[in-house]
Hints:
- The protein is mainly alpha-helical.
- The chain is built from 17 helices and 6 strands.
- The chain folds into 3 domains: 1-76 and 91-281, Serine Threonine Protein Phosphatase 5, Tetratricopeptide repeat, CATH 1.25.40; 294-335, no CATH class; 347-427, no CATH class.
- It has helices at 16-19, 35-39, 44-57, 62-72, 104-124, 133-158, 185-203, 225-243, 246-254, 299-302, 309-314, 348-361, 365-378, 384-387, 395-409, 415-422, 446-454; strands at 76-78, 269-270, 294-296, 315-324, 327-333, 343-344.
- α5 (104-124) packs antiparallel against α6, α9 packs antiparallel against α12 (348-361) and α12 runs antiparallel to α13.
- The longest helix is centred in the N-terminal third of the chain and has 26 residues, at 133-158.
- It is globular, with a radius of gyration of 22 Å.
- The protein starts with 15 loop residues before the first helix and ends with a helix.
- Mean pLDDT is 90; it is low at 1-33.
Amino acid sequence: MKIIHKLYLPLLIVGASLVAGCEVDDTIDPNAPSVEAVQKNASRTQINQLGVGLQASARNGLSSFYRVSGAIGRELYTLNLSDLTSTSELLGQGELSATTLFNGYYDAFSQTRRRAELFIQAATNTAANTLSDEEKAGIRGFANTIKAYAMLNTLNMQYKNGIRLYFTDLISPGDLLNPGPFGTYEQSLDTIRATLERAFADLQQAGASFSAFTVTRGYEGFNTPETFGKFNRGLAARTGIYQKDWQYVLTALQASFFDLSGDLKAGPVFTFSTASGDQANPLWQQLNSNDAPVVAQNNFVEEAEEGDTRVAEKLARRNEDRLFAGLTGKYDVNIYPAQSSPVSILRNEELILIYAEAKIHTQALADAVAALDKIRTAAGLQAIATAKPAIVTDKEALVDELLNQRRYSLYGEGHRWFDARRYDRLAQLPNDLPTHHVYEQMVRPYSEYQWDAKHPQ
Length: 457
């Protein structure tokens, strides 16, 4: 099924960066009903549109999220002739501005979060003879899982700035002008985790299928409350590593689709196409372009173990090196070779690495080595006992090995910057020029400060 990238209503986004300075038109368009039109007694058709719209929205922001975090994490660079800030401000020449152009991820993930809340409220306020209790539970479980995904992505970029802990209730007059407060990093993680737990509890009460809305083809294998719950638990495990709650991580993994002997690529994906009404993969690029090529930071190739097949799988050697702003681009990023290539949301490969990390920190080093060997051998490398026998019983050395495997398995997906930060290794990331430095976090958008100043709590 094709995902149609529409929500069918003019959303009011609580994230100030999406609403500040806008005027609201109260005219009701019968072809694009207002928020109020679906807040109470929405039809099953409208409920389905909201569900499909949420899934389409969840794909937005990926280009900004991956390319900005990838640049700061020294994985990839966008050599953009028309936007020098990609090779200056973003790489640390000076400081990031609160009005920076790099906040596209913030707006997009805020939109997804609001769409999830509208979906839940529409279901909650729909007549009992329209949706069953099981269907409403399924909508809450699905929407809150997607909401938590968007919140964690935003928090990883904002870090100590935190995120808004909640958006206020949509029912009360004026709520759209009064978003919730920003929490600390720790409070934000707690909120994300609690959101996932509520979602998982609802999924267990949601019956055998998501009968109230269409689950799009990217969730094949995860398109029932039970199987989608395994995806939810995988996100819970991902969240747990940032809290360093290793037992929670292991418990969540056992209820997820984690499979030490399974397909590394298994997991839900975002789908794209060039069909009318859909969108092409925003991370795809034409190889050997000179306009704004996305190229690898060269250490990714130079520091790879000999024979690591992930290098050739993710990069393509350029016909000619691209020289720009003191940087040399030898390899184009080619993770998504076609405009219809899917983008992994969460896959078994990452879950195995999460499992290895939790096992290292719970002193089960043999289990960690076995998990890391699954990743290594799949990439054409020898097992640790053969290639690096001295580290088999060395916890700190195994942490180094884990981070290296995450670097190559999850390349270009945002993780390296976050991994370096949570292990206090930002200083180890390379700077290609003496004027560069690595940021700890993105700047909170200036429009958020403006919003709170105009609409104090």
